[in-house]
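User: Can you predict the 3D structure of Glutamine--fructose-6-phosphate aminotransferase [isomerizing]? Sequence below.
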Amino acid sequence: AAADKGGWSSFMAKEVSEEPEAVANTVLGRVQDGQIVIPELDGLDGLFQGVSRVIVLACGTAYYAGLVGKYAIEQWARIPVDVELAHEFRYRDPIVGPETLVVSISQSGETMDTLMAVKEAARLGAKTLSICNTQGATIPRESDAIVYTHAGPEVAVASTKAFVAQITALYLLALHVGRVRGALSAEVAGAAIAELEALPEKIRWILENEQERIEQLSRWMSDTRSVLFLGRHVGYPIALEGALKLKELSYIHAEGFAAGELKHGPIALIEPGQPVFVMVPSPRQGATLHAKVISNIEEIRARGARVIAVAEEGDAAVLPFADEVLRVPLAAPLFEPILAVVPLHIFAMGLATAKGLDVDQPRNLAKSVTVE
Ligand code: G6P
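Assistant: Sure. Here are the predicted structure tokens for Glutamine--fructose-6-phosphate aminotransferase [isomerizing]:
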């Protein structure tokens, strides 16, 4: 009903507008005196002792949140992380035991493939922790521990606000585990917490200052038949998520690539007029990484690509090479994905709307896939 949409044209429009709160509410109550305190994990420190490996299991958008989480868990908790699609995990005799912590991510907590993978991991002796947006759902009930995301109910089939909340929860978990295991200084954790707490305001800045321009761009591009997304480091999973959202909502062929793979194949796709979104890492992430992505942009532009750069505010290096620049506020490098994905959500939603499609109920898709 229109009332439930709170005046928005779609649930998705409402849910994208709630991305700042999804992050804020997921952090809320989990920081005390500059320290991470996750009440649900009270007394469960044992879960993180003796763990030599983390396997993240999920499907769809939640899987891409997991790919982002890998960078944070490895950096802060210093535990090697594999991220795997839940339906692939089960059928290959995985090497899993008591030293493995399996972190599942599911908005609904009911995705059958994810549930069955978690059960299989538990049967093999792994410790299991569920990141979930739905109180009392099946996957958290089947897990040893739960960290809820507090994105609020998500109605639109394609996930948006739950995605930013999932990354936030993974970051809180990574910081918590890093501290519990003595892998992370209070100082580094404190700086990360400050970054997390600053995110909602920065997302709001994007919605207030860039949304209209991005929607205009999506209207101009409503006849586009194929869109490519390139990213590197934490920008890579965001490129994948941007492509997924565009196919789901607008039925346009879209594909995400690691920017470094360009020369190993995708560059063959570039022909005059081909739109390519490029997630530009902050120049502060290390001059090398930034310079490499700028040179990727030059390479595709020389072949006629139409470059839409998602870049940090004030990054002047990108201006001469991009047809469009979508700005995101400054954040420490690991936190950029939570900002950079917002323009991509707006773009996919805008393009589907421009094509007259139902953004809440894309054809052939279900909100929660409860069959294998
Ligand atoms: C479906 C939805 C996606 C979602 C995926 C995983 O495919 O359409 O938006 O990312 O399921 O759902 P989950 O509830 O496990 O996060």
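The mean pLDDT is 95. DSSP finds twelve helices and twelve strands in the chain.
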